[in-house]
Amino acid sequence: MKNLTKKSPSLSTCLSPWLLDPATVFLNHGSFGACPKPVLDAQQEWRLRLERQPVHFMVRELEPLLAHAASKLASFLNCNPCDLAWVPNATHGINAVLRSLSFKPGDELLVTNQAYNATRNAVEFAAASGGARVVVAQLPFPVNRIEDLVQPILDAASPRTRLAILDHVTSQTAMVLPLERCVRELKTRGVDTLVDGAHAPGMVPLNLRKIGAAYYTGNCHKWLCAPKGAAFLHVSPSVQNRIRPLAISHGANSTRTDLSRFQLEFGWTGTSDPSAWLSVPTALEFMGNLLPGGWPDLMAKNRDLALHARSRIASALGCQPPCPADCVGSMASLPLPPAPSHALPRLPRNEFPLQDSLREKHRIEVPVIAWPSPPHRVVRISAQFYNRPEQYDLLASALVEELRTL
User: Last residue of some domain: 257, 286, 315?
Assistant: First the structure.
């Protein structure tokens, strides 16, 4: 096999309009996203505008500007902008909800075995603080039918379940859960749902009204390609009086009546850089204009590429796709052979040597994730507008080569 360190430029990630290193095949958009230059330019303009007159901007201009950005995002999410609050990331949104609610002995918090680690930690903390119990629904992976992801969640719910915390798109296994059905079925049992939608905005069509979850938080920096630090928390009006921001600030004793307490408290939690939030409309417009069919076309294109890539890599590895196509969005995970003892994750990054070798030897950035625990592992691919089919061919060849020793 030829030396893959020096690749043909045709196999590198496209330069424009993203700033990604052209010498690296970047197949990990799912971890932190990648912000296009026009969106970064918009963010810089907001920063310059702030710094030219900080008092005027923060005191007189910021609130209506954030409201305008929220209205654009709400149109995309199919929800009321009054039910949205800006937060720095989905983990922040998860914690805001969990730290606002009180739990007591006998209460149960329902999660799945595929919950994101940061979310699981927040749930464990909230449960322990009130003496509640965490119940874990065991979702299968591999899975044959999308319906098989619903029943374990419903079976784990009980009359003591206070809150279900569900991923819209699982991080490790990259499966799109049948969220609307889960939320609806749990609601009939009197259980509210907190959705960790970190990956969903921009990956799958979203209609928060139709989903009907009490709480939904999502990132804008991933598949919407907004700057880092842009995320939202959506809270149903019926439960907004329960939810407080993590930082209690001036809104807590405001005498204003033109906004809800929810909006007043989340609208100002202290001085910060609001430029990422203000740049979300630019990201929505830019990404939505990449293809003639707008966002639906872009989501469909990315999903088709993810499915193609999954099939190509599965064929090279001699395995079957581990979940049905209707569980796939713009990411896909494939199981790898268990790692031998010399190829287990290493501190401090806790990355498998296989991931290091793919990056250092083949210049491919792709995560190799312990699932469900070492030595078992999966490789998770992402598909974004800047990726091309031949990049996954390169990954398939590199995996076959490296798995002989790692």
Answer: 286
pTM value is: 0.95
Whether residue 389 has a cis bond before it, omega within 30° of 0: no
- 275 in the same domain as 170: yes
Q: ∠ at Cα 163 (212, 277), nearest 5°?
A: 60
Q: How far apart are CA 175 and CA 169, in angstroms?
A: 5
Q: Please tell me whether residues 181 and 317 are part of one structural domain.
A: no
- Distances in Å between the Cα of 112 and the Cα atoms of 116, 123, 162, 347 are 9, 11, 15, 26
Q: Are residues 178 and 208 in the same domain?
A: yes
Let me know whether 213 and 334 are in one domain: no
Say whether both 279 and 222 belong to one domain.
yes
Q: Pick the closest to residue 75 from 167, 201, 184, 197 (CA basis).
A: 201
Among 222, 253, 286, identify where a domain stops. 286
Question: In the chain, which residues have pLDDT < 70?
Answer: 1-15
CB atoms within 10 A of CB 4: 17
